[in-house]
Design brief:
Layout (H helix, E strand, L loop, with lengths): L1 E5 L5 H8 L2 E5 L5 H7 L5 E4 L7 H6 L5 E4 L9 H6 L3 E3 L6 H16 L2 H9 L17 E5 L3 H12 L3 E5 L5 H6 L2 E3 L2 H7 L2 E4 L13 H4 L7 E4 L8 H10 L4 E4 L19 E3 L8 H19 L15 H25 L3 E10 L7 H16 L8 H7 L3 E7 L7 E9 L2 E9 L5 E6 L2 E5 L4 E8 L4 H11 L4 E8 L5 E8 L7 H6 L4 E8 L1
Parallel strand pairs: 1-2, 1-3, 3-4, 4-5, 6-7, 6-9, 7-8, 9-10, 10-11, 11-12, 13-14
Antiparallel strand pairs: 13-15, 15-16, 16-17, 17-18, 19-21, 19-22, 20-21
Length: 526
């Protein structure tokens, strides 16, 4: 039975799901060294924000297939190292969307109305109404940096509160921003015009210390900043100084460059700053949602099924996976087939999407084809996570083309592999019932479903060849499930495809090549 290590506290609902398919060990007190020592025994690791999954941990995880982060951010996982090892990294991109958005809005309103200070004042038996005169958010301009799921929900609610919305997100179209009531602008416009700025971005080399002394100096003295995204995107020393000096009106921070927050100038700012201990996802509903979401994905991967939200499989989001699932299987099957036909070292793979398939997202299909191509050589070491890396490291050049003019099927795929032993090509398509068909091999038209064991021959189209092959296989007790011949001209060359029930016994292929008229023969195992 598979083993899963849960190294941070997660909701019991997630544990219950994992327990259906695996032995689940919960240990939330492991030091980095202890985690490295323990991880070799596990097939999966489930974490939250506390566990640091370093390259050393990943290197030690000899059996690891998947790392699941019960939350959105994966800053605490070395995703690149996991990808190189073929370890899938999944998260829950939507599980805490509402919780994080609501906390952002709560922080904004708390900051505007001085709620933390007023609360403390009343508890100290004071009644200082004039000291806590606040600001309304109505008709104020909110600058949203990052218009993903959380930022979009903040925009929806803020718009209903009567706020004017500016947004910066280089990956969002103007049409999508307009649907949310936002005007897409450059960052400088947000810095100079917004009354409130909320950040919803990951911490990357490009976003680190995005809010700093220089950008703070561009802001209005009435600007307030809210960050419930990731620590490190704000220079904490600079923002503390800006609040103290009145460069900006205030800041509300839920995340910090180092957590828990240690000695920090932020703690010394007397007023107009609200600090919370990373509570963005801390609702009962969110904790259940993310635990269930990630546990289901870990369960599915351990059962050999795809994950919904793998962060290190380009283009494979849930919607794409569901839509392209049959074509991904087709691409992998054809890649496996052409790889075995080509044999030896592969230098180049041409992936040609044809017909209606040209309208589909191509990157996942290319990845699936590469996985199939490399599977005969690498077996279980290659998967959707590391297929592109493995191909690149082997010097395989990948060329992708689209040809909408092909109308034989509603959508078809053609792979051409060039290597040390020559060039081979295969084509395939899906029928209306989603059943796969191999439709062409090396230019010869055929129409056969893939089978676990197949025999391909290139031979002269002449009487007696097919009969001799059938008799030869019968003599070795090999049962033929189906047979088809493809040819271009009568009595020219032809391709024969035999689906057989069992692997060919040793020595049979050599006997087949001795038959008069046989030019070449290949055993294929799919």
């Amino acid at each position: 039975m598979a083993k899963v290590l849960v190294s941070d506290s997660v909701d019991q609902a997630g544990i219950d799901i994992l327990s259906q398919v695996a032995q689940v060990d919960i240990n939330t007190k492991l030091s980095p060294e202890e985690l490295i020592q323990a991880i070799p025994d596990y097939d999966a690791l489930m974490i939250r924000s506390g566990t640091q999954v370093t390259s050393d941990v990943i290197e030690a995880g000899n059996q690891l297939k998947i790392i699941g982060r019960a939350g959105v951010g994966v800053d605490n996982i070395d995703v690149e190292a996991a990808t190189r090892r073929g370890i899938m990294v999944v998260n829950s991109p939507e599980g805490n969307t509402i919780a994080a958005a609501e906390h952002t809005l709560a922080m904004m309103l708390s900051l505007s109305r001085h709620i933390p200070e007023a609360n403390q004042s009343v508890k100290e038996k004071k009644w200082e109404r004039k000291q806590f005169i606040g600001s309304e958010v109505y008709q104020k301009t909110l600058g949203i940096v990052g218009l993903g799921k959380i930022g979009s929900h903040v925009a929806t609610v803020a718009r209903s509160m009567g706020m004017k919305l500016l947004a910066y997100d280089p990956f969002i179209s103007a049409e999508r921003a307009e649907q949310l009531g936002c005007r897409l602008v450059d960052l400088d416009i947000i810095f100079t015009e917004a009354d409130y700025i909320t950040l919803h971005i990951p911490r990357t080399p490009e976003t680190e210390n995005l809010i700093n002394a220089e950008t703070l100096a561009k802001m209005k003295p009435t600007t307030r900043i809210i960050n419930c995204s990731r620590g490190g995107v704000i220079d904490e020393e600079a923002i503390a100084e800006a609040v103290e000096k009145g460069t900006i009106a205030g800041a509300a921070l839920d995340v910090f460059s180092e957590e828990p927050l240690g000695e920090s100038r932020l703690r010394e700012v007397g007023s107009n700053i609200v600090l919370t201990p990373h509570l963005g996802a801390s609702t009962e509903e969110a904790q259940t949602n993310v635990a269930v979401d990630v546990a289901e994905q870990i369960r599915d991967v351990l059962l050999g099924l795809p994950a919904r939200s793998a962060v290190n499989i380009p283009g494979l989001n849930p919607e794409v996976v569901e839509k392209l699932r049959p074509f991904l299987q087709l691409a992998e099957t054809l890649g496996n087939l052409v790889g075995q036909l080509a044999g030896g070292r592969i230098d180049q793979l041409n992936v040609r999407l044809q017909g209606e398939l040209t309208d589909s997202q191509s990157q996942p299909i290319v990845i699936a084809a590469l996985k199939g191509l490399l599977s005969p050589a690498l077996q279980e070491r290659v998967n959707y996570v590391n297929a592109s890396i493995e191909a690149k490291e082997r010097g395989i050049r990948v060329i992708e083309t689209k040809d909408a003019s092909v109308h034989d099927y509603s959508g078809s795929l053609r792979l051409e592999a060039t290597g040390a032993l020559g060039e081979h090509s295969v084509s395939g398509a899906l029928l209306s019932d989603q059943e796969m068909r191999i439709t062409n091999v090396d230019g010869f038209p055929i129409n056969v479903p893939p089978n676990n064991y197949m025999l391909f021959t290139l031979h002269r189209d002449m009487p007696g060849v097919i009969g001799k092959i059938g008799s030869l296989l019968g003599g070795f007790n090999v049962n033929i499930a189906s047979m088809q011949v493809g040819r271009k001209i009568v009595r020219g060359d032809a391709v024969m495809v035999l689906s057989i029930d069992d692997p060919l016994p040793e020595g049979v292929l050599e006997e087949i090549t001795k038959v008069t008229g046989i030019r070449d023969a290949y055993i294929i195992k799919l």
